[in-house]
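User: C-alpha cells for this complex, please. No commentary.
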Amino acid sequence: MNYLLSWMIFLPLVAAFVVGVMPASSRQAIRLIALGATLLQFVLGLLLFFGFDGSLQPKAWSEAFQYVEIAPWFSLQLGNYGSLQVDYSVGVDGISMPLIVMSTILLVIGVVSSWKLTTKVKGYFMLYLILSGSLIGCFASLDFFLFYVFFEFMLLPMFFLIGIWGGPRRSYASIKFFLYTLLGSLFILIVMIGLYLSVGTIDGAGAQTNTFSLIQMMDGIYLSNTLLSPESGYMLWGMPLRSVAFILLLVGFMIKLPAVPFHTWLPDAHVEAPTAISVLLAGVLLKVGGYGLFRICYAIFPDAAISMAYPVAMVGLISIIYGGLVAMAQNDIKKLIAYSSVSHMGFVLLGLAAITSEGVSGSLFQMVSHGFISGALFLIVGVIYDRTHDRQIENLSGLAGKMPQYTFFVVLFFFASLGLPGLSGFVGEVLVLMGAIGTESLTGIFPRWIGMVAVLGIIISAGYYLWTLQRMFFGKFWTREREWESLMRDLTIREWLMLAPLAVLVVLFGVFPSLILDPIDNSIQFFVARVLDQGHYFLNR
Amino acid sequence: MTQIPLTYYLILSAFLLCSGLLIVLIKKNAVFVLIGIELMLNAANLNLVAFSKFDPELNGQVFAIFSVVIAAAEAAIALAILLNIYKTYDTSDLDDLNTLKH
Amino acid sequence: MTTPAIYITLVLMFPLLGGVITYLSGSKNASRLSLMGMLPGAVIAGFLIYQSHDASLVVRWEWLPGYEFGWCIDRISAVLIGLVYLVSLLVHLFSAHYLSHDRAIHRYFGKLGFFTASMIGLLAADHFLLVFIFWELVGFSSYLLIGFWYEDVEKAVAARKAFMVNRVADAGLLIGVILMVTELNQPFLSSLVGGESSLLVHLAGFGLMIGALGKSAQFPFSGWLPKAMAGPTPVSALIHAATMVAAGVYLLIRVAPFLSPPVLNTTAAIGAVTAFMAAVSALTQHDIKKVLAYSTISQLGYMVMGIGAGAYQASLFHLWTHAFFKAGLFLAAGAVIHYLHTLKHTDSTFDAQDMRTMGGLKKVLPFTHVAFIICGLALSGLPLFSGFLSKEGILSGVWLWAIDHSANGYWWAYLVSDLAFVTALLTPIYIGRQILLVFHGTPRTALEKLPHMEPLGLVKVPLMVLSVGALWLVNALNPLDAGGWWLSSFLFGDSAGPGHGSIQVWTMMLSIALAVGGLAISYIFYRPGSMRSLGYQMAMVPAKWYRRLTFEGWYLESIYDGLSGNYIKVAKAARIFDRKVIDWLVNAAGVSTVVFSKALAVIDREVVDGLVNFVAWLFRGVGGVFTKIQSGKVQNQLIWMVLLLLVLVLWSQF
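Assistant:
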C-alpha cells in the first residue's frame, strides 16, 4: 500500500497549518513554503503519472482503480435503519489521473503568479494551500461523502480569495459564485442521500449497512427495491426517479462546468478574481464539474445518460455556439476569455454525451488541454493588467512591436485555444467532434447534425481571437493613457517562468497527444463500454 | 360574686390583639413593632388564662406562664437583634430595612 | 525508425529547422541561414522523386489510440514536394533581396520556413486528419505572412479576413474529414474507394469540396485572395500563387476517385463560374498585384473545373505549369514594386503597386520585362509556352465532359465549357493590358529620379528559372500535344486522361484563336500612344456599374463585410441577451430570494417573534403585579399575611 494520494492531499493542508502559525510579517518565507509545498505536490503528481499502470484492463469498477487507500472514517448505528458507513477511500483511474497531474502543474504556476502579492500574504497563501489540497482530494475521492466534503471545502477558500483579493466588484462576484455553486451542491446532496439509501450490503444476519462508496454505486450494486435501484421503477412527475436524480446531478455539475444557461457566475468571478485565482478557477475548478459528470453522473446513472443523451448534447452545442457568440461581443479581454471557457466546456459536455471512445477521450483531453490553455490565457491578461490595471481591448493597440515576446505567447495561446492543429486544443476538439458525429452509427443516441453544427464553433472562436489580436496587438502602437506607454515592457523572467512551461506543454500534447491518451486509453474504453452495457441493461429491467 | 363571662375576656383579648397587630403593621420604628408583638402575645396569654378559668386542670395557666417565659426570651433576643441592626444600618426604621426585596 | 520515416522527417524538418534557426539568430545573417535549411531539404526532395519511382514511401504510426496515421509519398506527392522546394528556394533567394532592408527579416524567414514545412507536410500526409492538420498550418502561416507588416492596420485586417474566410471553408472540410474517418472508414488518401452513393458519401464529398474551394479561393470564397495581396510580394508568389492555393486543387485531385457525381458536377460548375468571374475582375484592376491575384483565382478555377470534368491529369499539369509562370509573374511584379518603392521615401503617398504610376519600365528593367512577357504569354495560353499545353488539356477535357453530360440531360454542361472558352479569351486581354500598361508606353512617373537599378543576381536567377519553366520545351517535346507532358507517364502511368482524339484539334484551333485574339484586343486598346494608355494615369475608380462590378470583384468583399457585420450584431445581441435575460434571471432569483426573506423576516419579527414576545409580556405583566407585593417591607408582607389569613378564616367559616 502506498500513500501517494494522501500525501498529495494532506501535504498542502499541513503546509497551510505551518503558514498559519508563522508570523504574518515573514512574507518571503510564507511564499517559499507555499511554493515548496506545491512543487512537492507537483513532484508527487509526476510520480503518479509515471507510476500509473495504463495496461490495466478492468472488468468492473472495483478493479479499475490504482493507488487505492481505504480506511474507515466513521460509522453510526442507526437502529432500524441499519448502520451508516463512511470511508476515507481514495484512488485514481485514467479519468482522474490526468486531471490531478494537470492541477498540480497549474497550482505551482498559480503560486509563481501570486509572488508579487503584498496584501495579507499569509491569509492568501493559507487559503491557497487549503484549496490545493481539497482540489486533489476531490479528484481522488472514491467515497461520495468524502467527495462531497472536498467539493464543498473548495468553495470556502475560493470565496475568500475572490472576496478579499479581488477587483472592485469582488463582493458581488464572490457571493454570486458562492451561492450559485452552493445551489448546485444542494442538488448533488439530494442525490447523494438518495444513493446512500439505495446502496449498501446486507450481511448473513440480515443487518443492513448503507454506504457512500462510489465504487459500489458505479458497479450498480443496489439494495433491492430501494429508492434508486434500477428495478424498483419509482416514478416522480412522470419520470423514472433515476432520471430525475440524473438531471439533478447534471444541473449541479453543469453549474460548476459551467454550461449555458448556468454560466453567468463565471464571467463575474473571473473578472473580479486575482490572476492566479482566475487561472485556478478556469484551469482546475471547472474541471471538477466535468469530472463529476464523468465519475458520478455518467458512471452511476448510465441508463439515464443514454436516454438523456439528446438534451445533454444540445446543451453542449448551445454552450459552444452561444458562449462563442457572447465572447465575440466582449470589450473586456478577461470576460472574453471567460466566455470562451464556456464555449470550450461545451465541447466537454458534447463529447461526453456521445458516449463513444473518441468523444469521451476527446472530452477528457479537452479538459486537460483547456486547463493549460485557459490558465495561460488568464496569465496573459494578468500581464497587461499588472502593467496598466486595465483590461479593455480598445484601450491598447499595436503591442506586437513593443512586446514581441509577449505577443509570441499571445499568438501561440490564442491559436491553441481556437484549435490550431499541432497545439493541444485541436486534439480535444477534433476528437469530440468525431465522437459527436460518429455516435449516430455507433450508439444511435443522438443524430449527427449536432456534431456538424458544433463545427461552427471553430469558426466562431477564430473570429473573436483574431479580432482581438488585430485590435490589441497589430497596427500602430497606441495606449489610451500616455503614462502606460512607458509601462509596456516585455515579459519579465517571472512571467517567462509561468508562460513557457505551459507553452511547452501545449505544443507537446498537441504534437504527441498519445502522451496523455495512451495511459488512459484502457480506462476510457472501460468507461464507455461499461456505461453503454450497464445503461442498456438497466433500461431493459 | 358574679362571674365575668368569658366573652368579655375574649373581647378584651381581641382588642389587644388587634391593637398589637395594628401597631406591628403601622409603626415604622422597630421598637414599637416589638411592643406590638408583645401586646399580641399578651392578648394570647390573656386568652389562655381566661379559658383556663373554666378548665379544672389549669393547663392553660401553665401554658400561659410558659408563654410569658418564651416571650421574655424572645423579647431579649429581638432587642439584641434590633440593637445590632441599629448598629449596622444606623437606623431602626423598618422601611429602610428592605434588603429582602432584592 | 524505418528508412521512409527518416526521409519524410528530414524533408519536413529541414525547412522548419532552417526557419527556427534563422528566427532565433536575428536579422543579420537571416537570408544565408534560411538557405542552409532549404538546400539540403531540396536535395532530399529530389531524392524522394527518384525513390518514389519504384514504390511509394509509406509510413504508418499510431497518433491517437486506435487511429493509425500515415504519410504516403507517391509519385504525385514527390513531384509536388519537389515543386514546392524549387519555388520556395527561388522565393527565398528573391526575398533576400526584396526584404534586405527590413529589420524583421529573420522573422520573415522563420515564417517562410514554417510555411514550407507545413506545405510539404500537407503533400506528404496520407491520413485525412493529417491532411487537415497541415491544411490548417499552411493557413496559419499564410495568416502570419499576410500580416507580416502588422503595424499597418489594413494589412492586419486583410490577414484576419483571409484567415476567417478560409476558416469557414475549413469547417466544411473538417466535417468531410470526420465523416471520412469515422463514418465511411476511408481514412487514407492513397486507398480511396468510390462508387458508393449514399447521403453520407454526398455529404462528405461536399464537405471536402467546400474545404478545397476555400483554400483555392473559388466562388464564393474567392474574395480572400485579393486581400491576401497585403503580404510581401514574394509571399504572394509562393503561397498565394504557386503552392498553398493549389492545395485545394491537390486535395480535389486526390479525392476525385471518391467524389460522387453530384459533387463533381458542382465542382465543375463552380470552377467555371469562378474562372469567368475572376477573369472579368482582373480586367479593370489598377493594382499590379490584384490583377495577378484575380488571374490566379481564374486559373485555379480552370483546375477545379478540370477536376470536376474528370480531367484531373490535365488539372495537375496546369497546377504544375501555373506554379512556374504565376510565381514568375509575381516575382517580376515584385521586382517592379521594389524598384518603384524607393520613390516612397520622397513621397509618402506614393503607391508602388499602382499601375497608374508605372509605364515604360522596359527601359529600366529589361530583364524583368522579358521574364514578365514570357510568363504572361504562358498565362494567356499561346502555343510554345507551357500554359498552352496544360490549359489545352483542361479545355478539351471539359468539352468532352460537356458533350457527354448534355447527352445525359445536364443541359447546363455546355455553359460550363462555354464559360471556360470565354475565360480563355479574357485571360490574354487582362495580361496583355498589364504588360502594356506596366512596361510599355511613356513613363507615368519621373523615372529619372531613380537610380538605374537592374535587379541583382538574386532576382535574376529566380526569374530566369521560372521563365524557362514557362516554356514548352521543359514540359513537353511537342508544343501542341497537351498529353505530351513528360511527367505524365511517370505520374499517371498509361492513363493520360481525356483530351485526345478529334475533338482536340477543334479545341486547339479555338484556343489558339482566342489567345491571339485576346492579345490583339488588348493591343488595340492599350497599345502605346492609344487613348486609354495615355489617359491611364488619370483613370479613376470606374463609374459605370458594370465596370464598377468588375473592379470591386463582384462585391464579394462587401458581402463578406456585410455578413460579418451582421454576425457581430448577432454577437452583440447575444451579449445583451446574456446580460439582460440570463444574468437578469439569476440576479432576479437572487433579489427575489432576498425580498422573500425580507418578507419572512417581517413575518418572523411581527408574528412568530411577536407571539413569543406577547407571552413574555404577559408574564412580565403578571409578574410585575406580584413583584409589587414583594416590596421587601416586612410590614407589607405582614399585611398580606393577615389579609390572607382573614380570607382563609372567612372561607373556612362559610
